[in-house]
Inverse folding.
């Protein structure tokens, strides 16, 4: 795992296959989380972008207590709940 993290940091770009909560009960849709040095983009499998922002002091990332495979990305514009897929994969480019 340490080698993967080092590679991501040196490449300054990584893509993760995740699940995105639609905000209703326990319904999740497939999405791609793309992280670059300047910001991130979350794209759903349908042709729309769920969120795209530059990193700033207003963005907070939290892992909800008791949900170690989920994380929340909260900014002044949105709050998105993401979940690692069972086959959590990192696609470095």
């Amino acid at each position: 795992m340490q080698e993967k993290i080092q590679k991501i940091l040196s490449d300054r770009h990584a893509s993760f296959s995740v699940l995105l909560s639609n905000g209703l009960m326990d319904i999740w849709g497939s999405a791609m989380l793309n992280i670059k040095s300047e910001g991130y983009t979350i794209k759903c499998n349908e042709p729309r972008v769920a969120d795209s922002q530059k990193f700033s002091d207003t963005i907070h990332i939290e892992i909800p207590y008791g949900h170690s495979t989920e994380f929340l990305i909260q900014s002044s514009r949105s709050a998105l709940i993401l979940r690692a897929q069972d086959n959590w994969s990192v696609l470095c480019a």
Notes: The CA atoms of residues 58 and 75 lie 6 Å apart.
